[in-house]
Structure formats: structure tokens, C-alpha cells
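Quick one - inputs below.
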Amino acid sequence: MRKLFKLGAVALAVLALMVAAVGCGGEKAADKQGEGGEEAKQKLVAAFEPTFAPFESTDENGEFVGFDIDLIKAIAEEQGFEVELKSLSFDGLIPALQTGQIDVIVSGMSIKPKREEQVNFSIPYYEAPLVIAVREDNNEITKPEDLAGKRIAVQIGTTGADKANEFKEKYGAEVKTYNTVDLVFNELINGGVDAVINDEPVTEEFIEKKGQGKVKIVGDTLVGDYYGIAVAKENTELLESINEGLKKLKENGKFNQLYEKWFHTSAPDYLPGERS
Ligand code: GLN
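Output:
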């Protein structure tokens, strides 16, 4: 009887091990190998919210394009990964990373203490402040205090939304959240809101491409943020590889090439925060 019990226990243990092994194989998107056997590169699922030009947007052929898209492709090439691009809602990015559905977030995402509790960030690769934008004919709003009693549109889950909520507390503004930056600006142009709070480079790009004579930036820039590539907490090896890739691209000039391609100005000598 005891022996039988023992045998059963061993069989159970073996079974548990087998299940665990199979489970592991499918757990992380980064572990999935291509079909090509040994030669296949490790696949990196890179996700972003694609209404954030010039960092990520969709071109007329439905292709994802932008600085972040080129950057993650270049890092992957440098470090021997194959990239799969994935579009998600901005507020769905961190949960997707935490549940292993994606491997990295490259989405103009600001490095913030609250996010650092949930994910790890690469070394910063871009610095951008927030700005207030209003309709071209609005001369009432020129500084944060003027937002008292006004309606502000922001993209859900962003630093712009945090800032707008701060102004709501301080000055009694009303905050309306939208899923995409396109919707945020449409609402401003259509008169559904009085102001937008969003990252400066993206607001400038919107005005240049779609908002000329309709939207303008007012007042001083608000808090500056660093953008980082986010990786799951436990994925420390991948984080190191991404940092290594970023540094290599900075050194070999490819980072600067991409920077000039998308921002039409030369890149700073150092990656932000790298100088110290
Ligand atoms: N940089 C802002 C943030 O991290 C906005 C990013 C975005 O909308 N893609 O919240």
C-alpha cells in the first residue's frame, strides 16, 4: 500500500514537472522561437499606441512608422532579435507587459516613479516637456491658471492626463479623457473642449501636419519627461540587451540618423541622462 502511494507520488511529481515545462515554453512572448530551428532569431513583441506621431503612427499603407518604430527595429538588429509590432491602447500597454503578452513598450512612454513600480525602463532616449494647446482663436488661455473652469482633453493614462488632473484640483478645471491623441485634438478643434495637454513634440507635429491655423501652443512648457523603453520587471536580461543596443546605436551614429530623420534637427551629443 505504502509502495503504491510512493509510486503515485512519483508519477504525480513527473506529471507536474512536465506541465511546468510546457507552461514555461508558452509563458513569455520573448521565449517563442520562429519555425526556422537554430537559426531563428528570438522574437521581440514590441507594443505602442499608434496616434503619437512622430514617434508612432500609421502611414497611408497601414504600416506602423515613426522614431520609436525605427528605434526598436534598429536595437533588434543590433542585438539579434526579430521584431513583431503590436498596436494597443495606451492604458493597456503596462498590463500587457505584466501578463507577458508583449516584451517591450516603445510608445513615447515617460519614465515615472509610479510606472517604475510596475515595469523597468531602459536608459532614457528622449526628453520632452508637456504643453498646453488651444484653438488658434482663443486668447483667453495663456497659462495654467487660466484653465480654471475650462475643459481639458487628454489621452487616457498619460502624463498629460496626470497634469490635467493636477490643474483640476488646483484651479477647478474639467478633465475629459480619450483613447487616442487624434480624438483629443479633434475634440479641441470641434469645440468640445477648450485646451489639450500633451507632449510637446507630438503637439508640434500635429499642428504642422493637421492643425495649421486651427491649433496653437500657449505659455511655458510644463514638466519635462524622459522617455524610456519598458520591459517586464523579471526580464532583466532583455533590459540589459536593450540598453546595450541603445548605447551602440548612439555610438555608431544610427541613433542620430533616426533622430534627424524624424525630428529634422540634430540629436544631442548624449542620450538624455547619460552625461553624469
Ligand atoms: N509621454 C506621455 C506618457 O508617457 C504620453 C505618451 C503617449 O501618449 N504615447 O504618458
